[in-house]
Amino acid sequence: MWLRVATSQTIPESETLVRRLAGPSTTKAGLAKDQTEINRVIAEASKGSKFYEARTNICMISKASISEMLNKGWINLSVFPFMDIVIIAHICCHDTRKLVKLEAQRDLSQIIVHVDMDAFYASVELLDDPTLDGKPFGVGHGVLTTASYEARKFGVRSGMPSFIAKKLCPDLVVVANNFHRYTEVSRQVMDIFRRYDPNMCAAGCDEGYLNITRYCNEHQLAANDCVQQMRDMVRAETKLTVSAGIAPNKMLAKICSDKNKPNGQFKLEFDSCAIKAFMRNMSIRKLPGVGRVNERLLESIGIKTCGDIYSHRATLSLMDKQFGLNFLLQAYLGIASNVVQPGQREERKSIGAERTFSPIGDQAKILAKLEEVATELEHDMERGDWTGKTLTLKFKLDTYQAFTRAKSFTRWISTKKEDLFMIGKELLMPELPLTLRLIGLRVTKLKDLRADVQSAAGGIKRFFESAQSNSSPRKKRRLNADEEQAGDEGPSLTQDGFEDAMPGYHEHADSDELDAQIGQLDHSPLSSALPGMTTSSEHDGQSQFSLQKQPHARPPHSAPASSQNTAVASSSRVAKPVSTISNPKPQSACHTTSNSFYPGLAATVGAEVPAVGATDTALSGGSVQAQTCPICGKTIDVDNREFNDTLTSVSARKRSGKLKFLLPYSHRREGTSLTHERQLLKERPEGIRGDTDF
After folding, report:
1. The model's pTM
2. Rounded to an integer, what distance in angstroms lies between the CA atom of residue 19 and that of residue 36?
C-alpha cells in the first residue's frame, strides 16, 4: 500500500481562535444548540475583553510554535529523490510489525467501567435548592465550574466566563460553589461504587474507573445489568444520576461513558473488529491524552480522526519524538491499559489551594485572600499528614497572565497557617502593586508523615523487605523538581506497559476550570519550539504550556526580582511539583533558593541576590562587579540583576533546546565584536558537545 509523507496543512487562524474561545468543554453532553452559532456568540461577546486578548496571544504563540516545530521536522524529498520509496517502504514494514505486536497484547478479558456523575455540582445544588428545577443555571463565580442541562441547551458549559454565559442565556442563574457539600456527596457516591470494586480508581470527585469482572462472575450478572444496578443504587441513595461506559479498557470506557449522557450507559462490543470500527471515525480530540494543542498539531498534518493515524503513520514514525507513534497506534487499535487500582499516597507530588475572585487591586484585600488560602492549605496538610520543603505562590493578573514564585527550605515547612501565610506574603509583597484575580499556595517536595509512623512501627523488619515497591511498573513519574526539568523522560507508561498520552501530556482533574487555563498553552513537545515557554504540570484536563511572552516575564508594575519565570500552577489528581524559581532573598542556613533548570545556579549566584526590602540601588541591580559565568567559567563585569536575568534566559533556552539564547550587551568579551554567546559556541568548553547542547 502506498504511503505518503504528509505536508503541513494550514489551519485558518480565525477558526482556531474561535475554537479556543469556545473553551475545553465543546464536546460536553447536552449542548443542543448549533455549535457554530454558539462559537460565534462567544467570539462576539469576548471581543475587546482581556479574556479575548489573552486567548488571541495564546493562539499566536501556539501557531508559531507548531509551525516552527513542523518546519524543522519535515524531510526535504527533493534532496533525496528515492527516499519516498526506500524509507517509506522500510517504515511501512516496521510499523506493520509494531501493529501486529500491539494487536497481540489486546486483552478482552476484563470488564472496565468508567462512571461519570451528570453535571455533578449543578445536581448537588439542585438537591439543596429545588427552586432551581427547570431553570438554566450555572455554578461558580466569575467562571462557571459546571452548568445545568437546561443551560447547556443554550451553549453554556463548564469553564465559561459568566459574562459570556449570560450572553448566550440572558436568564441564566449563577449559584456560588459549595465545595464542602460536593465533597460530602462525592464520598457517598464513591462508597457505593466501592461495593462493586473495592479497588476502584477515583479520577476526581465525580468520576472513576471500576473493574467489575470479579463482581459479575461472583453474582452471575451480565455487565450491562451490573452497571444498571449500580446506577439505580446511586439514584436511590443520593437522588443523583450517573452515566457509564463499559469496555475492555479504561480509554474505551471513558469514551463510552459520554455516548449516552446524561443518565445513560453504553457498552462497547468486546470484539477486536468492532473496537477498531468504533475507533475509526472517532475524533482525535475525544482521546484521553490528546489536548487542544496536540489536536491542532495532528490536524496540521491531516489527522482528524483515529482512522487517519494509519494512513499518516509514515509521518508519525519519522517524527515519533513529537507525536508519540506508539500511543497513537494504540489509539487506532483501541488498545489501552485495563489495570484499575486506587492511587497511592507515594505518587502524590504536591498539595495546594487557590482562590479565584473578581479583580482586586487593594493590598489588604489581596492579603486577606492569601490568608484564606493559607488556612485551607493548613487544613488539607494536617488532614492528609503532609509537609514539604518548597512553597510556591501562584497569582494571576486581571489580564489572565499567571505567574509563580517559589521558596525552598532545608527544613520541613510548618503546616501552621501563620507560617504558610508569612512565606506567601514574603513572596508576594515584592510584586505589588498588582490587580489580581487568582491567588494560590502549593507545597511540593512532600514528606508523608504517615509513612514515618509506619516506618517507626515496622522497626528492623523494613531492612529485610523487598524493594519491589520501588521498581513497580506503575505509571512512571519524576521524583523531584530537578528531574522534572531534565526533559529526557521516556513515554508515560501504565502499570501494564501501555503509553497513555502523547509526549509531554499530563492529565489533570479540574479540566472544567477554564479560568485556570487562560494564559496557558498545551504542555506538549511543542514547548521546545519557542523561547520563553516553560512547562507547567497542572490544571486543564488537557495538555498545556505555560505562556511566557518574554524570556524574563515580570508582572506589570511589579517590584524587580532576581530571576522569574511565567508559569501556571493548579490542582491535579496526582500533581507534579512546579519548578522552584529563584527568590529575591539572600541564602541563609534556614532556606535555599534554587533554579532546577541549571544545577548549581543557586550556589553560584545566591549570595549576590539582593534581599527583599533592599534599597532601590540593590533592587535595580547594584553596582557592576566581576561575576563568574557558570557556563564557561570566565569572569565578566555585570550587575546582579543583569547577571541573574541572563542565567534565567540561558536556563529557559536550555530547556527548550535552543541554540541562540540572547545574552545582554555587558556579557560580551572585551576587545572583540563576538558576543559571549558566540564565543562559547566557538570554544565549546567541556559539556558543550554541539550546537544544540544547551
Report:
1. 0.62
2. 10
